[in-house]
């Protein structure tokens, strides 16, 4: 019998605890996804070719993201994006995007094992995030379509505003448990504060 390794979610052991947040807050580990770090000249034909392959243009405005049919394209720098897919296999996704950009001196690297994500939703989600993040998270400053590489608690994260009170928090897998525990602790303090007022 051959040994088989199965990919498991780094937050599986926190799933139940995250499901028990107070009213107005919902947090859960999102399903595992394929992710590729993509480098290509945003003004060149390679960017257009990637846009055709993904079904959406690469976002070129700093700190923005856009949807694809099964994921997101997140601006990380002037010529760098994180491209995610909820349906693709990591190696195949890397190969497909790599094939597109290779003709244009671009690069595509599989980073699927680098990050996981936590979804944070609810009318109190923005306020909870503000307890550990120095960004201006008001809807006028960080509305849907915005993203930022920042710190939440003491963990480096990539934060996406998906909608009003709906956020996706990418975190390195080695910091995932820390971040989940921070969310749980902050939510508990937040719940206590609400009871006092």
TrEMBL record:
Lineage: Bacteria, Bacillati, Actinomycetota, Actinomycetes, Pseudonocardiales
Protein name, UniProt field: Sarcosine oxidase subunit gamma
InterPro entries (alphabetical): SoxG (IPR007375), TrmE/GcvT-like (IPR027266)
């Amino acid at each position: 019998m051959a040994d088989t390794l199965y990919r498991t979610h780094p937050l599986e052991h926190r799933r139940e605890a995250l499901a028990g947040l107070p009213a107005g807050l919902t947090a859960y580990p999102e399903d595992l996804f394929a992710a590729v770090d993509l480098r290509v000249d945003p003004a060149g034909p390679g960017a257009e070719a990637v846009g055709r392959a993904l079904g959406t243009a690469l976002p070129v405005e700093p700190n923005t993201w856009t949807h694809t049919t099964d994921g997101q394209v997140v601006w990380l720098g002037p010529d760098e994006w994180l491209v995610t897919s909820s349906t693709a296999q990591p190696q195949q996704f890397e190969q497909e995007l790599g094939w597109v950009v290779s003709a244009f001196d671009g690069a595509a690297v599989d980073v699927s094992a680098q990050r996981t994500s936590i979804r944070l939703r609810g009318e109190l989600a923005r306020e909870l995030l503000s307890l550990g993040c120095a960004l201006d998270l008001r809807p006028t400053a960080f509305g849907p379509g915005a993203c930022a590489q920042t710190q939440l608690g003491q963990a480096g994260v990539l934060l996406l505003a998906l909608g009003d009170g709906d956020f996706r928090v990418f975190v390195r897998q080695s910091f995932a448990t820390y971040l989940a525990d921070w969310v749980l602790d902050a939510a508990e303090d937040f719940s206590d504060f609400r009871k006092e007022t």
